[in-house]
Amino acid sequence: MTIIDWLRQPWPWYAAGPLIGLMVPVLLLTGNKTFGISSSLRHICAACVPAKIPFFHYDWKKELWNLFFVAGILLGGLLVALLLQNPQPVQVNPKLAVELQLYGITNYSNLVPVEIFNWHALLSLKGIIMMVGGGLLVGFGTRYAGGCTSGHAIMGLSNLQLPSLIATISFMAGGFLVANFILPAILKL
Amino acid sequence: MMESIKEKQHHQFLTENTDFEVRSLDDVTFNESELKHPAWYNLKYLFAGLFFGILLVKSEVISWFRIQEMFRLQSFHMFGVIGSAVVVGIISVWLIKKYNIKTIYGEPIEFVKKKFNKGNIYGGLIFGFGWAITGACPGPLFAQIGTGATVIIITLLSAIAGTWLYGRFRDSLPH
Question: Considering the entire predicted model, what is its pTM?
């Protein structure tokens, strides 16, 4: 097995997790930046469509680093797709596979299920709810909460901030509720 | 009289920075860097993002399937990733504070304490709803597009619209 083959396999949590945690000191040490991604969406609003909304009137250019960071994330995804893509289908818990089969989801070749997330599906009610509706909830909720998984769950908890713990518990509670009790009804559409 | 004081306090709160991620808005508590760098200095954050993006994809945390497993408590994987990341983060922040470690430009590292507001709960729940549906938080949206799931551009644009709507209706939301 070559190194490239080895890297192509999914990385275990105990390798990837600590490296993700290292983003916190890396950003602090390279320029006093707090790890956080959802704020990039706010900077995009501030740069493109501030309208007359005070929340979007600030010097977004001072936060330009954040837009470089998210551009890097996109390029990272591209790099994996070009060089390090896992040739095997995504391995999931068999219980999940049984459940998803009920909704016609059987293709595990991509990290994102192609049966739900594709351009054609944007014309269906299910597609609109999941891609457009889901996106709205993510953007609205993260800014209302003041951060996302990176800003609260990783950066905030690293700095032992109680509001971040409360926010993280809320993310998990909200996700748990929807995934178990509401998403099945959407997937059946 | 009471009413107007309450209103004033509420207004003051709303004009404060409730954002945990945007530090340059904390001009009262945060000593803003005196250093002025040319824009290309930001390229180091492009590389940091690139590395982070690779991690997100290779650990499969950008996978809708993995998020479904997490919220159904069917796999330890996601909890392991987030949990170990937090442990490394806590140790790093502790070391930086204990040894007063400076940035590579010699500036002291500042931490900003944030106040709780109800948005942490309401917004957190709403984000959780969206996370379960899209299987992605904001970082993974960018990474998913990079891996070739081009339709996620729509989800990302929608998330930007959601952020805009929050800004638009912020004053009438409970905080």
Answer: 0.94
